[in-house]
Specification:
Layout lengths: L22 H9 L10 H8 L1 H14 L7 H12 L5 H17 L5 H16 L14 E6 L6 H13 L5 E4 L6 H13 L3 E3 L6 H15 L3 E4 L9 H17 L6 E7 L5 H13 L3 E5 L9 H9 L6 E6 L7 E3 L2 H8 L7
Parallel strand pairs: 1-4, 1-5, 2-3, 2-4, 5-6, 6-7
Antiparallel strand pairs: 7-8
The protein binds guanosine-5'-triphosphate and magnesium ion.
Guanosine-5'-triphosphate binds next to helix 7.
Length: 349
């Protein structure tokens, strides 16, 4: 049975105070049962988790839309605000083109109306990222997790394991981070506590560990394999080659796999996310993204930049977003919900 914990998100939204890796999953479970803490709905946690982004971007947006009329000055300031909010040049230009066009065609004069139009256009822009992962397509469904050091891979695996278990799926973890000595034990401890099998090896070869895990999952009739990998930078070419090998070896164990290659992105890195997606995609063919730590940053606007970079020729899926360190703080990405959480509630008229 999964024991999990609740934390007061408002009290500790800062990812920078974080300690290392999988131990966090374990440590957090040990430390903060907080049974009396009010249980927040996902929408409430999302809103709380995005409070920094909202305070910074949403606050300034709302100030703009309190103006008395829609004019060039307002549109220019909006453009600057979006560019400086990690929405990026391409996505901002796209949004402003759409807005200017609609201001003209629909004769929009009211800033409040323009605000609604921006919400609509932003939702439309990021909606293609919303493609929930369908884990029923294969058994075992093999998910490989990649990303730079400290992005939130191992923590996200813990959250995903819980997410899938709550859907009645059996899960097996592959301790493919053979780089850090402690990583394996951390995953094993966590797995034992949460009734999730963990496959690990002394060999130090991540491809061999993951190969074993896929075979074990098949033998045991497991639904989902989550393969952790060590953090690496795209510039560390030998490590990028190593992770490409992990993928090839998975395909040897199961010619249809891996069924999902998830890149974990730290929400704090802003525009760097675009370069990471490109580099990991070139090496291992990324099929989905997880963006973590949106609670610790005001840089959530980068989601629009990612949508623009990949639309419409090669849409990429933002499968999950993380808005806290709790096991429940990872949820499927929902474009409308995300935009709603960014903007302050509409002012009463
Ligand atoms: N606030 C917050 N912290 C997070 C979130 N996701 C992960 N973290 C924290 O980020 C830190 C790094 O997470 P890990 O899961 O260890 O990252 P990793 O990618 O496995 O790291 P390496 O294996 O060292 O490359 C930990 O302290 C986590 O608790 C999130 O959504 N919000
Ligand atoms: Mg890790």
């Amino acid at each position: 049975m999964f024991g999990f914990f609740k934390k007061d998100k408002a009290a500790a939204p800062d990812a920078s105070e974080a300690a290392p890796a999988a131990p966090d999953v374990v440590a957090a479970q040990d430390s903060a049962p907080a049974a009396d803490a009010p249980k927040l709905s996902w929408a409430q946690r999302l809103r709380a988790g995005l409070s920094r982004t909202r305070a910074q971007i949403g606050g300034q947006l709302n100030a703009l839309f309190l103006r008395t009329k829609v004019d060039d000055e307002l549109l220019e300031e909006l453009e600057t605000l979006l560019i400086t909010s990690d929405v990026g040049m391409d996505a901002t230009t796209h949004l402003l083109d759409r807005l200017r066009d609609r201001v003209k065609r629909e004769r929009i004069e009211e800033p409040a109306k323009l605000r609604d139009v921006l919400r609509e256009e932003l939702t439309r822009l990021i909606a293609p990222l919303e493609k929930p992962l369908d884990v029923d397509a294969h058994k075992p469904f093999i998910i490989m997790i990649a990303g730079v050091n400290g992005a939130g891979k191992t923590t996200s695996i813990g959250k995903l394991a819980k997410h899938f278990q709550s859907q009645g799926k059996s899960v097996l973890l592959a301790a493919g981070d053979t780089f850090r000595a402690a990583a394996r034990e951390q995953l094993e401890t966590w797995g034992a506590r949460n009734n999730v099998a963990v496959i690990a090896q002394d060999s130090g070869d991540p491809a061999a560990v993951v190969f074993d895990a896929v075979n074990a999952a098949r033998a045991r009739g497991i639904d989902i394999v989550l393969a952790d990998t060590a953090g690496r930078l795209p510039t560390q070419l030998h490590l990028m080659e190593e992770i490409a090998k992990v993928k090839r070896v998975i395909a040897k164990a199961d010619p249809t796999g891996p069924h999902e290659v998830l890149l974990v992105l730290d929400g704090n890195i802003g525009q760097n996310a675009l370069a990471q997606v490109k580099a990991f995609d070139a090496a291992i063919g990324v099929t989905g993204l997880i963006m973590t730590k949106l609670d610790g940053t005001a840089r959530g606007g980068v989601i629009a930049a990612i949508a623009k970079q990949h639309a419409p020729s090669r849409p990429i899926a933002l499968r999950y977003i993380g808005v806290g360190e709790g096991l429940d703080d990872l949820q499927p990405f929902n474009a409308a919900e995300f935009v709603d959480a960014l903007f302050e509630p509409p002012r009463s008229l």
